[in-house]
Each structure stands twice: as structure tokens, then as C-alpha cells.
Amino acid sequence: MSNNVSLTFDGNRAHVALDRPDKHNGLTVDMLRELVRVAGVIERRSDIRVVILSGNGPSFSSGLDIAKAMGNPLDVLRAFVPLPWRGTNVFQEACWAWRRLPQPVIAVVHGRCYGGGLQLALAADFRFVTPDSEFSVMEAKHGLIPDMTGAATLSRLIGIDQALLLTMTADCVDAAHAERIGLVTEVSADPLAAAEKLADRIAARPAPAVAAAKKLFDRTWNASVRRTLSVERATQLPLIVRQALNRGSNSH
What is the pLDDT confidence band of residue 1, given thresholds at 50, 70 and 90? Predict the structure, then answer.
């Protein structure tokens, strides 16, 4: 088990931090497995309303530590094989697990946010970043493509031309450019404070409605109108029933 991912609880918030600061939080396979495990712990906590995801040290994450990973190629191959009941491998699930959570996830980004680190941040529902943070779909420099759910998340956030530009060039872009193209939610001098303020606003709303909203958009963002309206009805009905039951019990 990795000790490079920390999980702490503060009231109705879970704080998850990448904790390999001397390597700019370069991701190891063990860290990816730990991210999956930690997401599972949070998912089982009905008292947790919001998750804040950050990185300790000078950067959010410089991406996959390729030198470390290649030190054990068999482990990388094992991690690359998808689990049939989940449909993702370890690399993908380390990011997509945060999409699966019913709780909204807010990434707080500073310094480098490259490669797998960027794909992890993109899997959050919101991204608050410092003005000096840097972003790169770094994989092309190594002759690779983003394979930690980046194609799925980029396609929901930015146009295909911008996604291709970032992916084909592996260029590093600053926070202002990232905000301009929709890659990040907000640039802030204090992104943690901004994230906590948003967390309070979200936590003030009924948890079932927040979870349903996340699930609704996740299931329908690229779906047909017919499919979207069907899922919308199916998602809304339990909420209406819940509200009716609550009103009935409160009237007695």
C-alpha cells in the first residue's frame, strides 16, 4: 500500500492529497492503486459531502513517474489490464473513480499539472488553480497518448481542436490560457479557499439532489436528446418521491 496518498476528514469534507513532494508528486503504480482504494473509502462514507483533491509540495503532479514505473514493467502490464466488472484498468480507474463518486470532487492545483496528473485533475468536477500553475498533455513527448481517461474528460471540457492541439504538441500552457479554453474552472490566488467556499455552498444543498445532478450529467453529457430526457425522468422521480415523503412526515 502506498503512503504517498493521504486521506483526512474535516467535518463533511474529505481531503485527499498526493504526497510525494520531492518528486513533484510523480505518480507511481502504487499511488494509482491507492487513489482507487481511497475513492472507495470515501464512497462508503455517507456523511462526506464534498471531496477536495490536492498535491503537497511544489506541484499538484508532474504526471506518471515513467522511470519508476519502468523499473517494474510486469507490474505496469498487470495494471494495464482492465477488470471486466469495472471496464477500466488501474491507470484509468485512478482517475475515473472520482467520477464514480456521488460526492462532487474539487481539484486544487498549483505548480506542475502534467500528463497523468492533468488527467487526474480533469476527472474532478471542478478545478481551482493558482495563476502560476502549468498544464500539459505530456504523453506525446514520450511517444504516447493520454490513456488515463483524458480523452473522455477533455471531450467534455474543450473543443476537439483544442484537445488535439494539447495532445499532439504536448505544449505547456499557463493558467490564463487553460481558463480561456475551459480546461479549468477558476484561477485564484488562493484556490484552496475558493474550493472550500464552493464546498460550503454545495454542502448546503440536499445531498441526494447533488449526487443525482452529478450522475445525470455524467450519464448524459454526450448522449442523444431522447436518451438524456429518459435519464432525466428516471433521475428526478426518486427525488420527487423523497420530497413528497418528507413533506408527509413533517405534516404529522
Answer: very low
